[in-house]
Automatic annotation (TrEMBL):
Pfam families membership: Flavodoxin_2
Protein species of origin: Nitrospirillum viridazoti CBAmc
Keywords: Oxidoreductase
Protein name: NAD(P)H dehydrogenase
Molecular functions per Gene Ontology: NAD(P)H dehydrogenase (quinone) activity
Protein's UniProt keywords contain DNA repair: no
Domain Flavodoxin-like fold: 1-214
InterPro entries in UniProt: Flavodoxin_fold, Flavoprotein-like_sf, NAD(P)H_dehydrogenase_qn
PANTHER family linked: NAD P H OXIDOREDUCTASE-RELATED (PTHR10204), NAD(P)H DEHYDROGENASE [QUINONE] 1 ISOFORM 1 (PTHR10204:SF34)
Highest taxon, organism lineage: Bacteria
Lineage: Bacteria, Pseudomonadati, Pseudomonadota, Alphaproteobacteria, Rhodospirillales
Amino acid sequence: MNVLLVFAHPDPRSLNGALRDVAVAELQAQGHTVQVSDLHAMGWKAVVDHADFPDLKPEDRLVPVLASRDGYAASRLTADVLAEQEKLRWADMLILQFPLWWFTMPAILKGWVDRVFAYGFAYGVGEHSDRRWGDRYGEGVFQGKRAMVITTAGGWAPHYGPRGINGPIDDLLFPIHHGILYYPGYAVLPPFVLYQADRLDAAGFEREAERLRECLRTLEQTAPIPYRQQNGGDYRIPSMELRESLGGGATGFALHLREGVKA
Ligand code: FAD
């Protein structure tokens, strides 16, 4: 497979940097071709502004959705964004790697998504009618590709368990898994999460590195998180509510998992 790893840590000597090197080496050992977008090393611009749209005059009002749509349609987005979009077309598998900061991805990575996932590319695609609500949630430009999160957290595993005070990790990652990755069509694999990252010693690192290698060895076989397809009949259109007959006793994010299917 072609694998794109988008890396968001400011220091390559960090734990995340070491895990990235483990991941790249293992992926290559498995015969995959790997590209890394190291956002800090690239000096990635994290905010959306006028400079993203060369056809926009300084005095023009910036409406990000429309500017993104027009810029993408005309291939008039900036070179850094176009290059990342090309990598995404190339990649069969996308890995987002980051330390968990304030319960989500660091701003630089969110800015990568904001700028690269353009209208007409990652959203706003497909037929919008009373029968379909576009190609999204399981359909879209990345359908047939896989994606996965690698993250490290200072908190303990039980803090992120079903009754943990931080909230379940599956819930915290839902906006990334479902909202950013599944939305444009990726099949999303269960994440690799390393807990108590700040207290990791050398022996712990070796153990975690091996767990990561093991996880990466089965990338092509691992069952994705069984999210429901938007256009598969489970949701009413246009309200996009799950039909009352579905979901069992689930509430919240768990409603959007197909019943009886294990990840
Ligand atoms: P580092 O600081 O680089 O390393 C962590 C430990 O790993 C060190 O002790 C280091 O010695 C050791 N280590 C072992 N082997 C190696 C090796 N081979 N290479 C490098 N280091 C090694 N945590 C949460 O749980 N929830 C949050 O919401 C949250 N929010 C945060 C917000 C901010 C702004 C910050 C700065 C931290 C936050 N944290 C949070 C903690 C954060 O998730 C951890 O600090 C982070 O995951 C650690 O990853 P790192 O790569 O920065 O680790």
